[in-house]
């Protein structure tokens, strides 16, 4: 009996101590969590527990960055150095053979460049819990996402000059595969061309009568109709369904986060896109920061590069610190530096020098490049502190 | 004794334009003659090489400062331009400003209210940390749209900038070109306040100064002429350009004085503008670049500054240094990783200034007596009055040695034990420059320990490395404390050891620690002695009939006590059920309190770049010095072991018995048949396409899969017959070098060659080589190599192999340049970031980027493979105590 009470007392004590550590922020939350779970099943005394806590706190404090540390430079090196070993090729996505995704160095450059459009936009869509295990439901949702153009279900387009009409013969198999009916096609066309023509639907045949007598108008209408979207969401050209440990997941070729979020049956908390700009516009800067970290990390891991997250977090924070995405390069961070000398030393030298001249800029020389240019101590590491020893004081002792 | 000299620090730099008056004031000579030297070779008075501008020939004296070459800094002159010309670089700004100001009253085209509004914003912006430059941009844009001047009511005309330097005013009657005189007149009238709103700081620069009336002539020291061997002088490009400018300027002036017709004057004016424009920047679009007589484009001011070879990147951001050396590197397994072998010849040139004190005076005297030619000697002696004595020219050094007293500085030779920086390009990370202790050695290469090859990415196929000698006590202290190799073992990239064993060390460690390795007392003594061990021998594992020690015991001697861990070795076969300690291959490593109990030591245990390995644990728990000693002594031991034992690979290691070769042949033939069948079904149109793929893509994928499988199973068959004693197998399994794929390529089949990620398909129309039928999709026709490297490739296979290899080479070349550029951009973007004393990460101007670095404030290089704290070890430490 006494054993169980002492255990209870210990558990209570542990809880208290951990709560105190948490309160005082002596350890990061993740470490506290790990400590809690690991200590729980151990047969230890109060003293031993205290000792463990002390060792952990001490070793955490030992591992902290020192003031003056050139974290930026180290981050840049840590990401840049493995770059020489990465592939230049677009590989097929692990498992999903049909989708090719830009990876390796080109993708990494794309991320730090904060390009508006990635070369291979793609989304990963998880389904709402109730559909996640159901293959037919997954297929249905996939069909609602995949963009179907009139062109992609039609077997033949023809212009009937006598009737001033465009006849579209629809392919029955394709229609069934994509889950589209003739009426869908007809109404989609009707909606898009509105005043320009009349739409008549027959079984697997849609005819459009042009309002205009002009033949070139008819031609133009024909071209336009081909591109009309019947079903799905814009820019998503292809959807692949994969069974994963937690249910069916959709992978798309092409990305349209805004519309995908509104599709019925998807889990809006678990939609990912590799288009950073889209994330920024729809979910904001914090989400973009996380996306940069995740994307960069997965690119590096995929290539087997072991890089600490903290470096990537720093890059992501630097890119997003302003509230908008800033590129790493002359149109972003490097181009908006305060020092004209630093900008001139990077790229487009003359422009920055002339600009500084006319604006009468004052360069306070707080950065690295400026001080290197002037041959002075740089304000980093041991150069960022002034410490002088008084030898007389030492001898007195 | 505090250093008495004060170091001056530049606090800030202000930029601005030189006004015509400034130029005249700083000028020492007006230049009017478009010529350089007279027949006697003397500079012409008022010419471009006037001696008042400084001197470049030895022996001459500068007329302005009286100094000779080297001491005379050079002095500016000036040219009075007959007519003003525009500075091409400011044409855009001028155009914008003209558009934003009234053509009549030169006021800014804003109403008084708007001016008030913006003035207020101008005051507020800096307070909220915004740049006023953006405001000015706004104003310029806004003003450009104004049609009528709000101040005088004058109607504004459209202005068009014709690049590079012409501005046209488009009126109803047609467009009129504004001459620089007109433009200057307008700009002069703009008030200081208006300039401020337009983003021009009138205290530093008034825009009319960019319409040049006077041109500064840079000193001759900036544009030295060179004398060729033939005695012909060759002038600098800038001098050429200045001569052109003066010549045209004089002609223009003469014509103006003579009252020449408007047309001629305008032509000359235009020409002067051209010369001045190209003098500043010879790559302005819209005009042809000025050329040298030989047809080469001149390198004028802008070209001198711009780009990789320009002043900024080549001379200001990167500087050349003294006290450095460079030579070929070669390996020396007997060196500690903290050391570098320096050739005596180099040690005699590189010096360290050492102050003479009462404690070292005798030693210093000896060094001076030994002089510059004997190795531990000295090259220079600096007296207390600052006079420098070159010991090369001292007849009797004993005499000068007697004059030495405390306070002198002896520039002594580099010697064993000194600390130096060692570097290999490309310097991709901080471990590319590390501090080593010098070991002066004979011969002419730098020697280094093999353990530092991974961080430098060095090999010995002709690599060269650089060495720098820190000259101040502070620099040496920093080098020793922060930059020494042992302090850099843990990489900040992933928080694991980047330094570690490689290649033969790993093979040797495996050979040493596997179960079958037993050593006699003599052998054990030999091995431990080479490693520098001087303690007691552990009790032998076998006592009878002779005393024998296991390799594990020998290895354990060097593992520091208190280290306990277990992990799976590199040779692990990844069985479905791991039997742990009972592993059949001895691949489950258990180390208990510094004792290797089970398992073999291979790459996983102490390889370079292996996180969570034995070596990683040692450095985390026992510190860098212990870790260094461990690796150094184990290294020496392993080298001795493998040199005594011998370890080599030959043709025999990749030879297979005939019947095995037959089996491989059958596998390949079957695969080929299968490929033919696939092609046949495809031809008949009976192939089912994979979802999302065309028929051809499907076929291609299936063929590739078939062939890859064939290669794998052929490799597996070969692998069965290459026993564990096979050197190549040992290397592949332990992770020392090579892979199983390399092995099967040598022994069994080379496999598919690829270009652009697929089978080779290009070359001729519909075929890769004329040896095949058009449209042949078969394995051989698309680059499948059935031979092995051992059997040799036939000509067609050889060709495909070369094609695949070429792509690899091109790929590497492209990759280095793109990744280099990415790293340079990352670097410039992030280099100003630093952790402040409050733990925040801030940019140079002090803006906070992170409140704590990496969200938990942990330095990755001090982390345990990314984890801030290794809780398991903390628990282990405490619970371990209990058992005692």
Could you walk me through the main structural features you see in this protein, from its secondary elements to its overall organization?
Chain A has 397 residues and is α+β, with helices and mostly antiparallel strands. Chain A contains 18 helices and 13 strands. In chain A, helix 5 (104-113) runs antiparallel to helix 13, helix 12 (276-283) runs antiparallel to helix 13 and helix 13 runs antiparallel to helix 14. Chain A is flat and about 110 Å long. Chain B has 884 residues and is of the alpha+beta class. Chain B has 6 domains: 30-74 and 218-314, RNA polymerase II, clamp domain (DNA Excision Repair, Uvrb, Chain A, Irregular), CATH 4.10.860.120; 86-209, no CATH class; 324-488, Beta Barrel (Barwin-like endoglucanases), CATH 2.40.40; 504-645, RNA polymerase Rpb1, domain 3 (Enzyme I, Chain A, domain 2, Orthogonal Bundle), CATH 1.10.274; 651-810, Topoisomerase I, Chain A, domain 4 (Orthogonal Bundle); 832-884, no CATH class. Chain B is built from 26 helices and 30 strands. In chain B, helix 16 (504-513) packs across helix 20, helix 21 (658-683) runs antiparallel to helix 22 (695-721) and helix 22 (695-721) packs across helix 24 (740-747). The two termini of chain B are 54 Å apart. The mean pLDDT of chain B is 89. At the A-B interface, helix 2, helix 3, helix 4, helix 5 and helix 14 of A face strand 1, helix 10, helix 25, strand 28 and strand 30 of B. Strand 13 (362-363) of chain A pairs antiparallel with strand 1 (13-14) of chain B.
Topology:
The complex is a heterodimer of chains A (397) and B (884).
Chain A: H1 2-24, H2 29-40, H3 46-62, H4 71-80, E1 91-92, E2 100-101, H5 104-113, E3 122-127, H6 135-145, E4 148-149, H7 150-153, E5 154-160, E6 165-170, H8 172-178, H9 182-193, E7 197-202, E8 205-210, H10 215-226, E9 229-231, E10 238-244, E11 247-253, H11 257-262, E12 266-273, H12 276-283, H13 285-302, H14 309-320, H15 340-346, H16 349-359, E13 362-363, H17 368-373, H18 391-396
Antiparallel strand pairs in A: 1-2, 3-11, 3-12, 4-9, 5-6, 6-8, 7-8, 10-11
Chain B: E1 13-14, H1 20-26, E2 77-86, H2 91-100, H3 112-127, H4 132-144, E3 158-162, E4 166-171, E5 174-178, H5 180-189, H6 192-197, E6 211-217, E7 226-227, E8 233-234, H7 237-257, H8 262-280, H9 301-305, H10 311-316, E9 324-331, E10 339-343, H11 344-347, E11 351-355, H12 361-370, E12 378-382, E13 388-390, H13 397-402, E14 409-413, E15 419-423, E16 433-441, E17 446-448, H14 453-456, E18 464-468, H15 473-483, H16 504-513, E19 518-520, H17 521-530, E20 548-550, H18 551-556, E21 565-568, E22 588-592, E23 595-598, H19 603-606, H20 614-645, H21 658-683, H22 695-721, H23 727-734, H24 740-747, E24 751-752, E25 754-755, E26 758-759, E27 784-785, H25 795-830, E28 834-835, E29 841-842, E30 848-850, H26 871-883
Parallel strand pairs in B: 9-17, 10-16
Antiparallel strand pairs in B: 2-6, 3-4, 4-5, 7-8, 9-18, 10-17, 11-14, 12-13, 12-14, 15-16, 15-18, 19-20, 21-22, 22-23, 24-27, 25-26, 28-29, 29-30
Helix pairs in contact in B: 2-4, 7-8, 16-20, 17-20, 21-22, 22-24
């Amino acid at each position: 009996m006494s054993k169980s009470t002492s255990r209870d007392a210990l558990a209570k004590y542990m809880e208290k101590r951990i709560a105190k550590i948490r309160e005082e922020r002596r350890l990061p939350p993740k470490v506290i969590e790990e400590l809690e779970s690991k200590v729980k099943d151990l047969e230890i005394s109060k003293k031993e527990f205290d000792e463990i806590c002390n060792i952990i706190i001490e070793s955490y404090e030992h591992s902290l960055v020192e003031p003056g540390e050139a974290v930026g430079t180290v981050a840049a090196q840590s990401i840049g150095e493995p770059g020489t070993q990465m592939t230049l090729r677009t590989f097929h996505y692990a498992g999903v053979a049909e989708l090719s995704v830009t990876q390796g160095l080109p993708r990494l450059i794309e991320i730090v460049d904060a390009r508006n459009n990635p070369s291979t936009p793609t989304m990963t869509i998880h389904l709402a819990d109730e559909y996640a295990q159901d293959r037919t439901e997954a297929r249905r949702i996939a069909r609602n996402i995949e963009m179907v153009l009139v062109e992609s279900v039609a077997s033949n387009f023809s212009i009937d000059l006598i009737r001033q009409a465009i006849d579209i013969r629809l392919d029955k198999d394709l229609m069934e595969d994509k889950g589209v009916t003739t009426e869908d096609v007809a109404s989609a066309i009707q909606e898009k061309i509105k005043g320009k023509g009349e739409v008549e639907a027959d079984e697997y045949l849609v005819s459009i009568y042009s309002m205009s007598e002009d033949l070139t108008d008819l031609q133009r209408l024909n071209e336009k109709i081909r591109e009309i979207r019947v079903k799905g969401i814009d820019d998503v050209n292809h959807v692949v369904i994969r069974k994963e440990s937690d249910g069916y997941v959709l992978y798309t070729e092409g990305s349209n986060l805004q519309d995908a979020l509104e599709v019925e049956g998807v889990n809006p908390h678990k939609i990912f896109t590799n288009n950073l700009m889209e994330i920024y516009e729809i979910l904001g800067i914090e989400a973009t920061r996380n996306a940069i970290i995740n994307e960069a990390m997965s690119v590096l891991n995929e290539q087997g590069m072991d890089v600490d997250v903290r470096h990537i977090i720093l890059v992501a924070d630097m890119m997003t610190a302003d509230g908008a995405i800033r590129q790493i390069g002359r149109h972003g961070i490097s181009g908006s530096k305060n020092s004209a000398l630093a900008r001139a030393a990077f790229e487009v030298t003359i422009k920055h020098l002339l600009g500084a001249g006319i604006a009468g800029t004052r360069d306070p020389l707080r950065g690295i490049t400026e001080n290197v240019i002037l041959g002075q101590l740089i304000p980093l590491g041991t150069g960022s502190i002034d410490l002088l020893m008084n030898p007389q004081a030492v001898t007195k002792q | 004794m505090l250093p008495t000299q004060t170091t001056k620090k530049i606090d800030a730099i202000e930029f601005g334009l030189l006004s015509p008056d400034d130029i005249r004031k700083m000028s020492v000579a007006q230049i009017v003659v478009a010529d350089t030297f007279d027949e006697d070779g003397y500079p012409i008075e008022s010419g471009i090489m006037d001696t008042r501008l400084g001197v470049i020939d030895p022996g001459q004296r500068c007329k302005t400062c009286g100094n000779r070459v080297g001491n005379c800094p050079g002095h500016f002159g000036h040219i009075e331009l007959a007519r003003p010309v525009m500075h091409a670089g400011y044409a855009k700004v001028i155009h914008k400003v003209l558009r934003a100001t009234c053509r009549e009253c030169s006021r800014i085209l804003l109403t008084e209210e708007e001016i008030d509004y913006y003035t207020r914003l101008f005051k507020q912006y800096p307070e909220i940390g915004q740049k006023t430059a953006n405001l000015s941009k706004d104003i310029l844009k806004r003003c450009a749209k104004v049609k009528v001047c709000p101040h005088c009511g004058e109607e504004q005309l459209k202005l068009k900038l014709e690049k590079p330097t012409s501005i046209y005013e488009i009126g109803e009657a047609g467009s009129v070109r504004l001459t620089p005189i007109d433009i200057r007149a307008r700009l002069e009238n703009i008030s200081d306040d208006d300039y401020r709103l337009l983003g021009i700081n009138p205290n530093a620069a008034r825009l009319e100064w960019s319409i040049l009336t006077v041109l500064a002539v840079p000193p001759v020291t900036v544009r030295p002429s060179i004398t060729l061997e033939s005695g012909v002088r060759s002038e600098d490009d800038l001098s050429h350009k200045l001569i052109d400018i003066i010549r045209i300027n004089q002609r223009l002036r003469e014509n103006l004085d003579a009252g020449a017709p408007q047309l001629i004057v305008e032509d000359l004016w235009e020409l002067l503008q051209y010369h001045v424009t190209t003098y500043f920047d010879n790559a302005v679009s819209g005009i042809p670049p000025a050329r040298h007589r030989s047809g080469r484009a001149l390198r004028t001011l802008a070209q001198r500054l711009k780009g990789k070879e320009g002043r900024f990147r080549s001379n200001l951001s990167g500087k050349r240094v003294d006290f450095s050396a460079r030579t070929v590197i070669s390996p020396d397994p007997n060196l500690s990783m903290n050391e570098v072998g320096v050739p005596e010849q180099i040690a005699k040139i590189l010096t360290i200034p050492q102050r003479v004190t009462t404690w070292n005076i005798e030693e210093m005297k000896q060094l001076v007596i030994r002089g510059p030619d004997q190795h531990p000697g000295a090259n220079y002696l600096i007296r207390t009055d600052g006079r420098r004595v070159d010991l090369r020219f001292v007849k009797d050094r004993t005499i000068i040695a007697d004059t030495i007293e405390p306070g002198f500085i002896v520039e002594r030779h580099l010697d064993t034990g000194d600390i130096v920086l060692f570097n290999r390009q490309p310097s991709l990370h901080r471990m590319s420059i590390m501090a080593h202790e010098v070991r002066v050695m004979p011969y002419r290469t730098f020697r280094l320990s093999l353990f530092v090859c991974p961080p430098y990415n060095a090999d010995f196929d002709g690599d060269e490395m650089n060495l720098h000698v820190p000259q101040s006590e502070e620099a040496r202290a920093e080098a020793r404390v922060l930059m020494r190799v042992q302090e850099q073992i843990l990489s900040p990239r992933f928080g694991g050891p980047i330094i570690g064993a490689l290649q033969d060390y790993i093979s040797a460690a495996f050979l040493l620690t596997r179960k079958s390795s037993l050593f006699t007392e003599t052998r054990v003594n030999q091995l431990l002695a080479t490693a520098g061990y001087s303690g007691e021998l552990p009790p032998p594992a076998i006592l009878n009939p002779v005393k024998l020690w296991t390799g594990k015991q020998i290895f354990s001697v060097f593992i520091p006590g208190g280290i306990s861990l277990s992990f799976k070795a590199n040779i692990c076969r990844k069985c479905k059920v791991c039997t742990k300690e009972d592993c059949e291959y001895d691949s489950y490593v258990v180390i208990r309190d510094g004792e290797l109990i089970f398992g073999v030591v291979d790459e996983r245990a102490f390889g370079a770049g292996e996180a969570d390995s034995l070596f990683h644990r040692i450095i985390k728990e026992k510190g860098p010095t212990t870790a260094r000693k461990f690796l150094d002594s184990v290294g020496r031991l392993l080298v001795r072991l493998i040199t005594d034992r011998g370890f080599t690979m030959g043709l025999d290691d990749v030879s297979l018995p005939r019947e095995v070769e037959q089996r491989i042949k059958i596998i390949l033939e079957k695969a080929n048949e299968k490929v033919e069948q696939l092609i046949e079904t495809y031809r008949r149109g009976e192939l089912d396409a994979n979802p999302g793929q065309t028929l051809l893509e499907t076929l291609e994928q299936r063929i590739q899969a078939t062939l890859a499988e064939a290669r794998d199973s052929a490799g597996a068959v070969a692998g069965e017959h290459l026993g564990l004693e096979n050197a190549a197998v040992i290397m592949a399994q332990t992770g020392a070098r090579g892979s199983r794929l390399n092995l099967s390529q040598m022994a069994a089949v080379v496999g598919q060659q690829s270009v652009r990620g697929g089978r080779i398909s290009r070359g001729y129309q519909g075929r890769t080589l004329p040896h095949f039928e058009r449209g042949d999709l078969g394995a051989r026709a698309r680059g499948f190599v059935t031979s092995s490297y051992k059997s040799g490739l036939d000509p067609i296979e050889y060709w495909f192999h070369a094609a695949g290899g070429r792509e690899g080479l091109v790929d590497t070349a492209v990759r280095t340049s793109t990744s280099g550029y990415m790293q340079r951009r990352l670097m410039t973007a992030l280099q100003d970031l630093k952790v402040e004393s409050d733990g925040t990460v801030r940019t140079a101007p002090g803006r906070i980027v992170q409140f704590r670095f990496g969200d938990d404030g942990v330095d990755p290089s001090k982390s345990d493979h990314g984890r801030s704290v290794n809780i398991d070890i903390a628990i282990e430490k405490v619970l371990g105590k209990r058992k005692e």
